[in-house]
Amino acid sequence: MQLTAVSNQEEHSAALDRITQLWGLPQITPKQSNELEMLVSLVQEYEAEHTPIPLPDPVAAIIFRMEEQGLTSKDLAPIIGSQSLVESILNKTKSLTPTIIQRLHKSLNIPLDCLSQQYDLSN
């Protein structure tokens, strides 16, 4: 089988169908294994270019990083300014300011483009 770059949705669907077919085989030959590996790479390349992953909500990213690092809202108070401000931000009653965005980026290593996104506040 001659493999070429996946360049449109039709080719993407065909490549996914073939990957599914190969994965469903009870045994796979070395040639099929190579084909599978190449198809997966071609599909990943196409998806990376044509199906960007949206950035998470800024507050969700902060909460995720807190959980990941075992932090509590009290741990963020020195970074953000006060415990009440931390709670207001996490409850989405106050927005992130440019200063807080910079501090969170530096302290928690959350990407600036994620933290700088607009998001809806709770009423």
Automatic annotation (TrEMBL):
According to its UniProt entry, the protein's GO biological process terms are:
regulation of DNA-templated transcription
Q: GO molecular function: any one?
A: core promoter sequence-specific DNA binding
| Entry superkingdom | Bacteria
Q: Which SUPFAM superfamilies match?
A: lambda repressor-like DNA-binding domains (SSF47413)
Q: Keywords on this record? A: Plasmid
The HTH cro/C1-type domain covers which part of the protein?
Answer: 66-113
Kindly give the PANTHER family that the UniProt entry links to this protein.
ANTITOXIN HIGA (PTHR40455:SF1)
Q: What is this protein identified as?
A: HTH cro/C1-type domain-containing protein
Q: Which organism is it from?
A: Vibrio alginolyticus
